[in-house]
Each structure stands twice: as structure tokens, then as C-alpha cells.
Amino acid sequence: MKNLWNDTDEQTYISRYRGKYYTHPDTEKEILRQAYATTLLGADSALTMHGGGNTSIKVNIVDEAGKEKHALYVKATGTPLNLFEPEYFVVMDLDGLEGLKSRVGLDDADMASEFKRLRLARTDRLPSIESLMHAFIPAKIVDHSHPEALLKITNRAGGADLLTECFGKDLAVTPYARMGYDLASAVSESVRRNVGCGGVFIVHHGLVVWGDGAREVYDLTIEIVNRAERFLASMPSKPIRRGAEVSAAESERNYQKAAPLIREALGGGDVSLILLNAPDVMELINSPDASILRNPPLTPDYPMLRRILPLWLDVDLHGGIDELSSYIKAAVDKHVKEYGDYLGKRGVSDQPIIDLLPKAIVHPRMGAVCFGTDEAAAAAVGDFTRQAFSIRRAIFESGGVYRCLAEEYLFDMQYRGYQRDKAAGESKIKSQLPPSA
Ligand SMILES: [Zn+2]
């Protein structure tokens, strides 16, 4: 992974915002440097995608009443990292946040009202759900990302041990914890127990790195990712078997035929579709090993796993339109019913149909069709789907067995209050995709 830090760009970024928000020039410069570093974390989709990941900086400021305060500037939820602006930081009372450490099991509603109470500057934005994690780590700068290379090592049976083999004591590994209070206390506990480590990796989630300066911490993230990439490259390789070759022209032709039928089966109306048919995608979905994308293990997680895997069409695309149309409609309806039944059993009812639909529909001779309520949402689903394919393939090719995040967490991620509030302000569909499941 390329280190994108560029001193000239940094200066340009800083001078663009200088003098606009902060009084003390040194403090301002530090905050703006961290804001610039945030744009770099957002610039590589193998690090963060579509608002995932977040950053923070701790500084002393003088509040509106003229009192000196320890402040945490933390990324607001749902704001884009690649287009990050300094005003996307929410300014919080750091001492107040640290005081929440004693509130074991703090729930989302209480956390949200505490966050409101602890804001030091007026804003309508909600601080990241991971803000407590930033507050609890005793370092000036904290960067959190979801690096694909590390997920390729850990989203498998024995993945945590493999990561330890790769990094030794340089990186602490902690099991997945629910975002919010649980995650914050798991990570801070891991920091406390692993003195001298340069970061913590949360299994099935992402990387947290800290230090004194924006540049140093960004560099460390890139270094960790590069080390993970080298480790992956050194593992024994078992390439997927080659299947039928499908030309781009054939895939496009089939897409033109199936797209209107897919659109109709998804309920018609304002649905944007996007076709993934790059050579690596076609190679994978046509491989005899494509079962890694289509057959979730028959465990209690099955319906939830079905939900995050594409819906597979086993039908001859040369058939008549009516036949094809009713096949696709039946497949989508079956998916919606199964998923709705599952949610019903979990006590979630009255889900809008759009929440029950598959996110991607695959036919080996067409590609993967991803959809969203608008073009941006469809593109986001496309990016997450592409990444999920790439992670599963890398795990398979390095001899591993893919392991999904436990069902209770997947469920939690998609159906909990704070996340859904966040979703209301942006694309609904993209928020339903687990960032690193
Ligand atoms: Zn995260």
C-alpha cells in the first residue's frame, strides 16, 4: 500500500482552513494536520470505505465560557474520510468522556445523550459510535481503519493466531466487541495489557493505531498494512480453479437482457443497478470454487449469512423473457420471505421490503448486479461486494476457511438504534452492509 502523505498537499490543506475555526495557532495546526491525515485514510478503499473508519485528536482548548478544557476532536458519524473537512470533527469534553469508563454496560441511548451533553461546540452532527474508544486510549492521536489486508488474515478459522504470528508483540489482537462501550473498554484493556504494542486489531472489524503526531500515526497504519500484505504473499498459494470464460461482451449482453427483469423483481421504481464484471469477479464466480461465495454453512446463522451473500441465479439466460422473469421474481420473493421470517423470529417486524431484498444478484454468465436506492448507494454496495469477494478469495487461495462474524453481532450491527440513526442521514442500503463481516 502506498504512503500518500505529501508535505505540499498538507500545507495546501492547512492553509485552506487556517484561522477559520480555532484560536491558538499551534493547536489549530495540529488539528488541521490530523484532518489532512484523515483524508489520506479515506483515499484508499483497501483501508476504509464509505464513511467507515474514524480519527481523533486530543488537545487543550478554551471553551465558550473562557475555561481551559481537555478536548477530544473526533470524526462525526457518516462523514466521508476522503473528503474530510475540519468541521467534521465533533468537539467533546474529554474528561467527561473518560468519566464514562465507570458506567459499565452503558447502552446506546444513554451514550447518545451523554455525547450530546459533552459537546463543547455546537453542531448537529453525531460523534462516531466509536468515540469512547478514542477517548479511552491515552494518546494524542488515534486512527481507526478497516484494512482489507488484515481482514484477509483474520476472517478465517484460526485468524487471530495467524495475525499474532505475523506481528508478534507489535500488534495486540482482541476479539470482536460490540461497538460503543464494549468496544472501547475491550480496546483500552488491550492497550493496558500490551505495553509497547503499536496498535490493536479487533477481529472481524479493524485496526486502531495511536501516537503523538498525525504523520507518525498515519505512517504506522501504512507500515502495518504493508507488513500484513507481505505476510499474505508469503503464505502457500492455492489458486482457485479456472471455470468457463465469459467475455465482457457476453456479460454485457446478458445484463441488458436481465437488468429490467431484476429491476422489476426488486419492486421496480427508483432502483439503481450496477454491474460488477471485471475479470477477477468473472473468474471467481465462474470457478468451480465459487461455492465460497454461495453456500453459507448450515448453522443458526444461515439466514443472516444468506443476507450478506449474493443471491445466485441458476437459470439459462438464453430462455424466453417470461420464463426468465418469473424465475428471477420467484428467487427474489423466496429470499425476501426467508429473511422476513428470520427477522420475525428475532422480534423485528414491519421491515420495509427494501431492507429484505438481496444486495447483490449473481449469474456466472452476467456478473454480480448490485443495487441501491440511488446511484451512490448502488456504487457503495458494489464496492462492499467487490471487497467481500476479494477477501473470501484471498482466504481460500491462502488455504484458509472463511469465518463470518457471529450472527448475534451481525444482527446487532444491522438492527441497533445508533447505527440506524446514522443511516437515516445517508444512504440506507450501504449502512446495512457490515463493514468487515
Ligand atoms: Zn470501525
What kind of sheet is the major sheet? Answer: 7 strands, mixed
Question: If you compute it from the alpha carbons, what radius of gyration comes out, rounded to the nearest whole angstrom?
Answer: 23 Å
Number of DSSP helical runs? 19
Number of domains: 2
User: Strand arrangement, largest sheet?
Assistant: 3-2-1-4-7-6-5
First and last CA, distance: 22 Å
Spell the H/E element sequence: HHEEEHHHEHHEHEEHHEHHHEHHEEHHHH
- Count the beta strands: 11
**Poorly predicted spans:** 423-437
Helix content percent band: 40-55%
Small ligands present: zinc ion
Shape: globular
Commentary on this structure:
With 437 residues, this protein is α+β, with helices and mostly antiparallel strands. It folds into two domains: 7-234, 3-Layer(aba) Sandwich (L-fuculose-1-phosphate Aldolase); 248-431, L-fuculose-1-phosphate Aldolase. 48% of the residues lie in helices and 13% in strands. A seven-stranded mixed β-sheet has the order 3-2-1-4-7-6-5, sandwiched between helices. It has a four-stranded mixed β-sheet with strand order 8-11-10-9, sandwiched between helices. The structure holds zinc ion.
Structure summarized in a few sentences:
This protein is of the alpha+beta class. The protein folds into two domains: 228 residues, Class II aldolase/adducin N-terminal domain (L-fuculose-1-phosphate Aldolase, 3-Layer(aba) Sandwich), CATH 3.40.225.10; 184 residues, L-fuculose-1-phosphate Aldolase (3-Layer(aba) Sandwich), CATH 3.40.225.
Q: What is the secondary structure topology, with strand pairs?
A:
Elements: H1 7-17, H2 25-43, E1 54-62, E2 68-75, E3 89-93, H3 94-99, H4 108-117, H5 131-136, E4 141-145, H6 148-154, H7 159-167, E5 171-174, H8 181-193, E6 199-202, E7 206-211, H9 214-234, H10 248-265, E8 272-276, H11 279-285, H12 291-294, H13 302-308, E9 311-312, H14 321-345, H15 353-356, E10 360-363, E11 367-372, H16 375-397, H17 407-414, H18 417-424, H19 428-431
Parallel strand pairs: 5-6, 9-10
Antiparallel strand pairs: 1-2, 1-4, 2-3, 4-7, 6-7, 8-11, 10-11
Helix pairs in contact: 1-2, 6-9, 6-16, 10-14, 13-14
Bound molecules: zinc ion.
Zinc ion binds next to loops.
